[in-house]
Amino acid sequence: MSETPAAPAAFDSLGLSPDIISALTELGYEEPTPIQTHAIPLLLAGRDVLGTAATGTGKTAAFALPIVERLDPKSRAVQGLILTPTRELAMQVAEAVYKYGKNRQVSVLPIYGGQPIQRQLGMLKRGVQVVVGTPGRLLDHIRRGSLDLSAVTHLVLDEADEMLDMGFIEDIEAILQETPKERQTALFSATFPPRINDLVKRYMNNPERIAIKAEVRKTPRVRQVAYTVQRQQKLEALGRILDLESPASAIIFCRTRTEVDELTEAMASHGYSPEALHGGFAQAQRDRVMTRFREGTADLLIATDVAARGLDIEHVSHVINYDIPESPDVYVHRIGRTGRAGREGTAITLVQPREQGLLKAIEKVVKQRIESARLPTVADLRARRMELLTAALRESLVEDAFGLYRVAVQTLAEEFDPLDIAAAAAKLAAEATLGEETENEMPTASNHTDSRGPRGGGERYERKSGRGKESSSGAPQGRQRRDAGAGEVRSPWESRGPAKDRDDGSRPPKRRNDAMTRIVITAGEQRGIRPKDLVGAIAGEADIPGSSIGAIQIGDKFSVVEVPEADADKVIRALSKTTLKGQRVSAKREK
Hints:
With about 600 residues, the chain is of the alpha/beta class.
């Protein structure tokens, strides 16, 4: 067993074929992790591999890519067999194999308990090339005669020590005995107790050992929080968190360049000023992005780890892991971007339920428990907005720049209590910027609100814009825009999904006091209409900026959209000539 060599710089240096490289490029992968760098060439060369690598170091691609590369595409027999300790890991690995092999139409089947066995039987009968499963259900299929392992050429034991701890040793050995002796075997384990060493001696052929140790760095003193969210709810969760946290500036990390581009477009449609940064950028582009972020023109920097290396930015208040990092060391590197020069910093991580193991691995390495928080509710956001409004009013009082309005207040004071007058003024300021305070303004992550038609409520979405700054009085202002004399506070999360038009600062979004008209459209939730569908249709067909579109309400059969009065007729004509979700619609002004 040899020492681990130095790492090459890219996937195309590892011996992978162009169609595999193409799949990785489409997924946004930029460079291999250490375990991938060392394991892939050995496995491609036919060697058995014994790997020591913690969860989250990228070992799935380390063993899955060589399997995909070396499969016989003409054979529908099971050629690759991957054993995992849990159903969650089996699903995750199977999904990865499918993505890596999509250019070669690789067929893969996850097999685990709790899933209807008839579906698994049907797939096995039709023929699959790679099977990923838990030992118990795999052995069940072997005994039924539905799983034939006689053609297996590649075998992987993933997280072997955990499988043994769960009592699978006898099942594992029974499965190994059903595979050909001349197969290639890879075993990955965080520890190597005697039982694993015994497996290695009996079932592996002179394996090459690879040991990847995560570099443990001292974590910065920042507040660290994790939110557990489903994958499809991550964008909405991010919006709620940003509204609650009101960061002055933030770096949002994604795993791949594709995710960076998609999230940047989505955040632009939500009224932010984001900038993307990943390995696909030329140096000149990178410099322009960093200049805009440092100068405060952009309030969000959305980046991959590769692109963020070497960044030296002092004013970052928040680091957000939109995707949980693949290793604890990467986590430490990311959160080190905030909390610099004695400032306070916050690190937030979005974790899918099946990624809890990654979070625990990070906590173990950094020797610190990461606070688990619940997503902000409508009530939380309302309270936060009141905090921001109070801060804005306090600043206005300190500046004493409201002499013009004293006459009106003095007149009203002859009839009403001054405290009531102030409260009414604050209410008008809040409503002018936030819209009605209803439960429908912010749908929950797990449920959508009841839609009762355009006039009866439905889901309400606001399109706002603003740049987060810190006020001269030190009060956090978050994503606010203050209009002269109005004390406006702009912070709610609005329509979900990207719009075709992006507000890049060249044309400011419509202000709330511009003349707006409400357009009623004969399409709603029953047709699956979402805000992004309406924004895309109006911006694309009527040729108006998406940033000029106002509030959107979606009912069961109808939707109402606010558009500039000057563009209303053009929008109505354009919508009458197009389709939404493949069906014709009509539009008219609301009476």
